[in-house]
């Protein structure tokens, strides 16, 4: 999996109180953030995730880049008591980019995931300029648009996405309408969670369609099973690598124990790891 540093931006504006997503728009974000954190860290233990909000008086960094999920949960809990005002999308992205710019591991791919559930007050031209800046900085930006999914919001985010995405990978826009399903469940089958291969294949072919999906499972049909199978495969691969390293180390130890010095007919070490040789001579007392 990709080594990345991810800043997640949640929308804690007044609109996040609405209950059209179970149980509320803000709680739906919290659930999705926790699953996204687990997905990033389990994908690569050297990746890291940070958290910030963009509502109220302005953006606030809630947790710097970390591998400790407790810090993310603490930040979400604090923000739950600070739901007010409107969202500051452009400023939030700029602050997130600044936090990623100061990441310790520069080999991590910079990525921002923004949850948007309120009207976007920034004008489109400003967002386009910001998108060009993110593209130049090689920072991918994913948007999860839910709640206020009107035409104006989609138009602005689509303009941003088309610029920052370019011809490269990353930077996705997912529009999630209200549903009986949890927001996190609907996101499991998207490229934001599963990468570039999410949802590919399956268009025609009948019985051979399943072969086009990883593990033969369509992520859009059963996202939880697809994610579980992927993680199981990665755990098995890691187990096999550990076993191979252990076997190589054991073989190297056995070779060392049987090395003989020049003109010696016996190895330096016996089978019990003790020095070999004539024990009777060692036991004799020096009577000279």
UniProtKB/TrEMBL annotation:
Provide the transmembrane region boundaries.
none
**Entry keyword set:** Proteasome
Gene3D superfamilies membership: 1.10.287.3990, von Willebrand factor, type A domain
**Stored SMART domains:** VWA
Biased composition, class Basic and acidic residues, residue ranges: 233-248, 271-288
Q: Name one GO cellular component term.
A: proteasome complex
Q: Which residues form a coiled coil?
A: none
Q: Does the keyword Oxidoreductase apply?
A: no
Domain VWFA: from-to ranges: 5-192
Membership in a protein family: Belongs to the proteasome subunit S5A family.
Q: What is this protein called?
A: Proteasome regulatory particle base subunit rpn10
Q: Organism source for this protein?
A: Podospora bellae-mahoneyi
The gene behind this protein is RPN10
């Amino acid at each position: 999996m990709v080594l990345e540093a991810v800043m997640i931006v949640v929308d804690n504006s007044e609109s996040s109180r609405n209950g059209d997503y179970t149980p509320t728009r803000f709680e739906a974000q919290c659930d999705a953030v926790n699953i996204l954190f687990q997905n990033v860290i389990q994908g690569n233990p050297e990746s890291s995730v940070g958290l910030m909000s963009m509502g109220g008086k302005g953006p606030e960094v809630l947790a710097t880049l970390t591998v400790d999920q407790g810090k993310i949960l603490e930040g979400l809990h604090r923000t739950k008591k600070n739901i007010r005002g409107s969202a500051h999308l452009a400023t939030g992205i700029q602050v997130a980019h600044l936090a990623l710019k100061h990441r310790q591991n520069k080999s991590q791919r910079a990525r921002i995931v923004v949850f948007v559930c309120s009207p976007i007050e920034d004008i489109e031209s400003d967002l386009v300029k910001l998108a060009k800046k993110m593209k130049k900085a090689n920072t991918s930006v994913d948007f999860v648009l839910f709640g206020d999914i009107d035409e104006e919001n989609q138009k602005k985010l689509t303009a941003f996405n088309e610029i920052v995405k370019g011809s490269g990978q990353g930077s996705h826009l997912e529009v999630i309408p209200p549903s009986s399903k949890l927001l996190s469940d609907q996101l499991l089958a998207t490229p934001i969670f599963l990468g570039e291969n999410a949802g590919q294949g399956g268009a025609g072919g009948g019985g051979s369609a399943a072969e086009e999906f990883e593990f033969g499972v369509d992520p859009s049909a059963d996202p939880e099973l697809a994610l579980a199978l992927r993680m199981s495969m990665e755990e098995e691969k890691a187990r096999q690598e550990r076993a191979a390293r252990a076997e190589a180390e054991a073989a190297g130890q056995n070779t060392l124990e049987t090395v003989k010095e020049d003109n010696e007919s016996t190895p330096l070490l016996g089978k019990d790891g003790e020095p070999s040789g004539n024990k009777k001579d060692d036991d004799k007392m020096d009577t000279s």
